Amino acid sequence: MAGLIKAVRGTRDILPPDTALWQHVEQACRHIFHLYNFHEIRTPIFEDTQLFARGVGEDKDIVSKEMFTWEDKARAQSEKAQSLTLRPENTAGVVRAYIEHKMGDTGKLQKLYYIGPQFRRERPQKGRYRQFYQIGAELLGPPASGSESPARDAEIIAMLAHLLREVGIKEWTLLLNSVGNSDDRARYNQALREALAAVKDKMCVDCQRRAETNPLRVLDCKVPEDQPIIDALPKISAFLGEGSREHFNEVKKILNHVGIRYEVNERMVRGLDYYTRTTFEFTHGKLGSQSALLGGGRYDGLSEALGGPKAPGIGFALGLDRFVLALQAEETVAVPDLSPIVFVAPLGQGMNAEAAVIARELRKQAIATELGDDSFRVKKSFEAAERAGAKYILFVGENEVASGQFALKNLSTGDQVSVAREDIATKLK
Ligand code: HAM
């Protein structure tokens, strides 16, 4: 016997009825995006590897260790093989599309959102998968479109608080930080590097490596013994230039005024190269070690890093997998009931055709309908209706068709009524 083929490590099947919860989150997000004037963009699932190397940063774990990359075969001798990568995130793809389609030429602020799978070769665990799903939004445009304004940062964050309420997630915490512009960050990096040189020998092996390659990542370390050392390192706020500090103060001022709670967390630097100034994460207390529900921030230089025009921007991506886990952990939102309203049961041989016509009429009137089979008889029809989760059962037998009167039974109360064919839909509504 041939061996069973299973879903690949780090990937999973999302089955009904759980998919109803996924749809609930997706629909709530689309609704909120509409209210804030964001419009959907769909970019390819794979891109030129260079996009992520230049966009996200070559030395970032996501790029150096976690990408699914392959050499695409050259189609002709004159062509070179191209290195392609399954997207590990969607911001780089959106900015590439912005540049490629000259969206900046319109002069207007682009507000775009996306829903789709992303791929990272991380060690799988609860809340962390190799194929996972993000819903994200990006707001960018030429400086004259207002894309740099702290009002935009605050609006995105306020939208997220609204979105979480719409989805039904209550127990979140907003962590806020500013990582400054590239000059601020270069100075901070240098200061960190110097401070780490003196203490790194007392730290974990990962930190010893990061102290050399990417000092900012030291701030992410979770090893308990390293925490007092990290707490004593220089803080980013001391390195923010005048412009970055004012920008951050304005974001906080608006959030205070709108009434959105946040914690400033200076250790939150995020794992992608493109961030400038405002960065944020929303975490959830019941998600365990993978507690980030969503993350985002500003990327004022990303378009230029990808060879495009100046196009400051800010965005976020939420982990759909984690939103669903949070909803299940909070137990306050029920799985939406998508089961059929009625089960149409053909009774007796040759009744399939009549039942099919009635089911079609009901479905056209927007009544979710499940259809039985005339080999079922009464008992099996009831069982099938119950298994389908139908609220009513409608019998279609020769007598019913001849008289035009149909037996409609409420499966939870047991009440049965006789309805004229043309009234069935109205009765069910
Ligand atoms: P990120 O923080 O890498 O940011 O990912 C955003 C969210 O995606 C995380 O907070 C988490 O909920 C989810 N996520 C990430 N990796 C996994 C995984 N392996 N399994 C399950 N969920 C995961 C970005 O991707 C940026 N592009 C966000 C952004 C948009 N910044 C500006 N614009």
- The first-to-last residue Cα distance is 51 Å
Shape: elongated
The helix/strand class is alpha+beta
* Beta content: 15-25%
Q: Rg from C-alpha positions?
A: 28 Å
Question: Which small-molecule ligands are present, each listed once?
Answer: histidyl-adenosine monophosphate
Per DSSP, the total helix count is 15
Strand order in the sheet with the most strands = 1-5-6-11-10-9-7-8
Could you give a short account of the major beta sheet? 8 strands, mixed
Mean pLDDT: 95
Tell me how many strands there are.
Answer: 16
> Percent of residues in helical segments?
25-40%
List the uncertain runs. Answer: none
What does this structure look like?
The chain is an alpha+beta fold. The protein has 15 helices and 16 strands. It has helices at 18-35, 49-57, 61-64, 91-100, 150-167, 182-199, 205-213, 227-231, 242-258, 302-305, 320-330, 352-364, 377-388, 398-403, 424-428; strands at 39-40, 46-48, 69-72, 82-86, 110-119, 131-140, 172-178, 263-264, 276-284, 292-298, 313-319, 342-346, 369-371, 392-396, 405-410, 416-420. The protein has an eight-stranded mixed beta sheet. Helix 1 packs antiparallel against helix 5 (150-167), helix 1 packs across helix 11 and helix 5 packs parallel to helix 9 (242-258). Residues 89-91, 120, 122, 128-129, 132, 134, 136, 138, 271-272, 292-297, 299, 315-319, 321-322 line the site of histidyl-adenosine monophosphate.
